Amino acid sequence: MYECVGCHVFYQAASVEVLREANSSRCMVCGSTQIAEHGKGKGQERAEARNYTPNAVALNNYREHIGQVITFTGYVYDVKQSRRGLDYAVMFERASWTKGLKMVAFRGGVRKLGGAATLKSYAGKTLTIRGLLIQDPIFGPEIIVDDPAMVIRVDS
Length: 156
Description:
The protein is of the alpha+beta class.
């Protein structure tokens, strides 16, 4: 477990990796770059740790939450495989990979999430996921998911 020294929100190791890659190592709550193993950072000895409750968003307002950890529920229209064949986009809009909102699983995340077959099985279902919503300059809006705990619910 990791903890933000500034606001004392917990992160799992996988989430810290996503913060490093997609958010310049900044805490999603307070923006601090001071994230350390729980109990090992300055000021953590007596601090009250807390869980962060992400914003629940929908297709009509997700753009207002770019750069935040969100909880999103949406229907999966399609599951697309990247050109290099290692990454997948679970599409929540009928749009191209670069335009529509999507859940993205990169190579390591695909394996952790159960493989390509599991991701492809999401087509036609409604997912509730939690993750960092970013606006990639090339690939558009995406929620990066790399841990099974980030897929909260799957409904037929």
